From TrEMBL:
This is Twin-arginine translocation signal domain-containing protein. InterPro entries: TAT_signal, TAT_signal_bac_arc. It comes from the Bacteria. Pfam families: TAT_signal. Keywords: Signal.
Length: 32
């Protein structure tokens, strides 16, 4: 996953929100 850091910085997402997003994404992928 290259380029994620750039995406995070450009959107101003903080680390906590990013971790929540990752958890949600992982859960969604696990279910589907």
């Amino acid at each position: 996953m290259t380029g994620d850091n750039t995406l995070i910085t450009s959107h101003g997402i903080n680390r906590r929100d990013f971790m929540k997003l990752c958890a949600a994404l992982a859960a969604t992928m696990g279910l589907s």
